[in-house]
Amino acid sequence: MCMSKPLSFPLNSRPPLSPTNTDDPRARLSTSRGRCAMKIINSSLAVYLTLSNHFCLMPIKRRYHVRKALLKQLTQEVVKKFGENTAELLKGAIEVIELGESREIILVDGKALLFRLSDEIFPTLKSLDRIPLKRVAIDMGAVPHVVNGADIMAPGVISADEEITLGESVVIVDERHGKPIAIGQALVPGVEMRGPKGKVIKNFHYVGDEMWQFQAKS
């Protein structure tokens, strides 16, 4: 009769990591890191994001510095949409990061201050001190949904600037503190935003999303 040797490990070693060993802290760490894993299209052009204290890589299509001709065109576009006072916003080193699917992030001195979806440009939450937008206040019960990417529904609207026009960029704030939590596009005029049902604002950018967490890796 053959007796197998009992399983043993040196005192200074540990058993190999098993995906089924959920008690092993290494397994939990591996799982956590796995959730953040993203395919890198071009490792030399990577945008680093901080998500829940983990560093993740977001693939990008192209990153380039804006030349004078394009800068003039971009400045005219920003001024036309947001007013003459925003011309100073683009003073500094301007870069464009193309993310594909007609999405771009526009950096000013390394800070993400604008973004583009299709052919339309929007401010980020971090540029609201330079690009003031009309406000829409929502109730506190709607806040967790909005900062998770949900669009704004009429029942959650507490108040809205009555001068908001269809298609205008707006900032969504919480009713208690008036703190900006999202940037969106009005789907109805401001006077029609309060009501019993219906989607009234398309949510494009919110606290905690990719642009909010953005850090340029030099």
Could you characterize what this model shows?
This protein is an alpha+beta fold. It has helices at 25-36, 68-82, 143-146, 210-213, and strands at residues 46-51, 54-59, 62-65, 94-100, 103-108, 111-117, 120-123, 134-138, 152-153, 157-160, 169-174, 180-186, 199-206, 214-215. Among the domains are: 62-129 and 210-215, Pre-PUA domain, domain 1 (Nuclear Transport Factor 2, Chain: A, Roll); 134-206, Roll (Archaeosine Trna-guanine Transglycosylase, Chain: A, domain 4), CATH 2.30.130.10. The chain is 16% helix and 34% strand. The protein has a six-stranded mixed sheet, with no helix packed on it. The protein has a five-stranded antiparallel sheet with strand order 3-4-5-6-7, covered by helices on one side. Mean pLDDT is 77; it is low at 1-20 and 25-57.
